[in-house]
Design goal:
Number of helices: 7
Number of strands: 0
Order of helices and strands: HHHHHHH
Radius of gyration: 18 Å
Structural class: mainly alpha
Helix content: over 70%
């Protein structure tokens, strides 16, 4: 009975994705509660955006999402240092984000990059406006690496369990 339950869990993309999202949410939410003076909601959002369901391309998808999140947040930070947030700077940043995603071959994740860009650029309601983009950049980056770690660690555990229970992996 126990073996059957484990086999059903480690072969279900839905269950694996739910477990990853819940772990990511709990980590991100605990950071939000522990450090309420910082805009760590953006870390939580980035964690969830980066996590991928288990599958043959889950690591690649996760790495692509991390790259796109970092592209968007770096462009946001650069645009912020070039000029204060305004409509023109937002449009320029979206265009730059799309171009950089194209050159890094992550166009399928460009929308994630644009969201990360907007997270960094748009006005804060809790932090001083002059430092908010910097905090949001680090918040998004932290969320990316947490989401990546969750996907990689759970993939390793799933692979070991599949080997132990002699479950063939579909290539």
């Amino acid at each position: 009975m126990y073996h059957l339950l484990i086999k059903n869990i480690i072969t279900s993309q839905l269950i694996i994705y739910i477990i990853r999202c819940v772990i990511g949410f709990l980590i991100g939410y605990s950071f939000m509660l522990k450090f309420p003076d910082y805009e760590l909601f953006w870390s939580l959002l980035s964690i969830i955006l980066v996590i991928s369901p288990e599958g043959k391309d889950s690591r690649k998808l996760t790495f692509d999402r991390v790259k796109s999140n970092l592209i968007g947040s770096v462009v946001g930070l650069l645009c912020y240092f070039i000029h204060a947030t305004n409509l023109i700077m937002l449009v320029v940043g979206i265009i730059l984000t799309c171009i950089i995603c194209y050159f890094f071959n992550v166009m399928n994740m460009c929308r994630v990059a644009i969201v990360a860009f907007l997270i960094v650029m748009l006005q804060s309601h809790t932090l001083a406006e002059s430092i908010a983009p910097i905090f949001r950049f680090f918040s998004v980056t932290m969320g990316c690496f947490i989401g990546l770690a969750i996907t990689v660690v759970t993939s390793i555990i799933i692979r070991k369990l599949k080997k132990r229970y002699e479950i063939k992996t579909v290539a």
